[in-house]
Amino acid sequence: MNMEEREKPEVCEVLIIGAGISGLAAARMLENNGCKTVILEAQNRIGGRIQTDLSLGVPLDLGAGWIHGKGKNPLHRLAKEFGLRRFETDYENITRFDEDGRKLTDTENRRLEKQMAAFYKLISKWQDEFEEDMSLFEALNRYLYSVNASSVERREASYLLNTVIEHEYAAALEELSLYWFDSAGQYKGGDSMLTEGYEQLTNALGEGLDIRLEHQVDEICWGGKNVAEPVLVKAKNLEFSAKKVLVSIPLGVLKSGSPVFNPPLPRKKQKAIDRMGFGLLNKVYLRFREVFWDEDTQLIGYISEGSGQWCEWYNMLPVSGEPILLGMNAGDYAKEMEGMTDEQIVNAATGVLRTLYGSEVPDPVDWRITRWGQNPYAHGSYSSLSPGLKPKAYKQLARPLGKRVYFAGEHTHKKHPATAHGAYKSGQRAAREILLDI
After folding, report:
1. Which of 35, 32, 37 is nearest to 248 (CA)?
2. Is residue 380 part of a domain?
């Protein structure tokens, strides 16, 4: 269909691109303030990187899984308001094993926890003393070399840094800025899972909104000297004309060059998109016929011989009531896994469990595996600061184009990036900007 055959553009007051939690939060605030919105979503569902799967018979979150901090976290307040059941994670309730499958003693566990606290003190010291930024990996490797660390000490360091830092930031140590990787703020209080799935929040936020599914946006024409002119948004064979447009799609999609901005984005914004890290955290849920692990433990740690491989497991039995284990992998191994078949991944995971619990561990009866890097609507998990990039890059990503095109998403929230609550708050921030400019 050529341009002449297209129907006239649909006219909107505010057009929102992306029905993740940031776009939904913005639409809800705008609608509550009398501003009419239309949301275009490329997928056949809402939620973005919040996705609850039911294929194993119980709700399991494939993307965002925890509400971090029950203090002032707005998502905790929303969950309470909607009456959603939560299960709090006790990170101290952990059973750890060494590379041979021997369970660590209480004394060894305490020593590991002290070691991690010592690493954080060292990192804080380096952030003050080092004259130039570098990757976290380079700084820590220098330290381990300087103290002539043994192979056991290096394995333990790899385990600690993988589970505490790489899983937290969905990136390999080589991809994280020593100076700024931990610059984000945190809410106080424990972390919790939504027992019926995170999608409950996005479904509640999206209720009653005008959401057009399977509408992938190809081009945003925002140019023109007259700022009163509408923004033209092209989605397949449809066009929309809007006074204001909010772009609330993942950083990974922006990095891929989609949608096309006409004229191109300002140089500083494009540079921030290109340089900002966008890492990978993948999940593997394994369902068994019966429990063979300690029912009461919440976390299972494995000091693996292979760096960052199958180091962290969650016992989903207390959350779901079913014999399910969740294995998590981030950074390099998460990328490697994306090139493996389901059977290869399941065999690798089950092999680790047999190392920990014995050769009689059965094959799982079912599984669910994520590959967020291959997802064309995400291209990864969430943002991080790469070496040499400062936190002000988040503000650059949030900066509107005149008073016409606005931006939201976890990658645009300087204080709470890489979180669902940061994405939610960024949507509210963008909505306030739009309301001030209308």
Report:
1. 37
2. no
